[in-house]
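Project channel, design review

CF: Before we commit to the Lentibacillus halophilus constructs, I'd like one complete example in the thread so the newer folks can see what an input/output pair looks like. Taking DUF2268 domain-containing protein.
RD: sounds good, go ahead.
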Amino acid sequence: MTVIRTDKWLLDFCENPIDLCQKLKAQFDEDVRSSDIHQHLSNHGMYRQAPMSGEEWIGRLQEKNIWQTVRREERQLRTLWQGPDIPVFIFPSDPFNQTLWKDQNGKSGLAFPDKLFLFVSEKNSENEIRALFTHEYHHVCRLNSYRKHMQDYELLDTIILEGAAESAVRERLGEQYTADWTAYYSNETVERLWKHYVYPNRTAHIVSPIHQQILYGHGFLPKMTGYCTGYYLVNHYMEATNATSSDLLTTEPTTIIEKMDGA
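CF: and here is what came back for DUF2268 domain-containing protein:
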């Protein structure tokens, strides 16, 4: 795995993020435009416009040693999980995205089987960066280890993917560095969501509206329903079997839920 020195890219192209994304075209399909790449990444937390001069903004990130922190983490986790060697791209998060700041303290990530993106702020602590990378790289490892291709994922696959990744954060760094959504609801509430909404729709395909509605908790459903349920299911399985985050990389979702009532 290589942590790309995107800080050097940013010093040249920070104020023109679409031009910056031109440097990512080799990572995507031939016919994908740099504007499409930026739109996709900004939908997941990348900045849309710089709030100040590029030199000042990127200088603040460099002072936090973010690239060095991620490089150290990827060496440890690649060894621990026998993970793939992929490029890691670090960019500033969107300073104007109020939802991102409220829900995730201004940080997010995006994982693919063959690459990983982190969107961070100079206000994020070192352990927040470590937690974010742990979550996203666990995704990468499971996407490469689990038998099913992501385009074929169903709701159960997705919520277990998310729950396993955040359980890896808890295992490495402790509950204080897990995402806020892990503590949104009581166990009783999550069990009710599982039985009444998630389990009956567990085979909903990844591109179906109901898959996204349940995963993020849109409409009448509580916020982050799928994420919270996945985390609960994985924790329940880990406690029952003494499984580790490494074990979760290849564990079938049906195995994880087989001890749950209603499954």
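RD: helpful, thanks. The chain has two domains: 2-145, 150-257.
CF: The mean pLDDT is 95.
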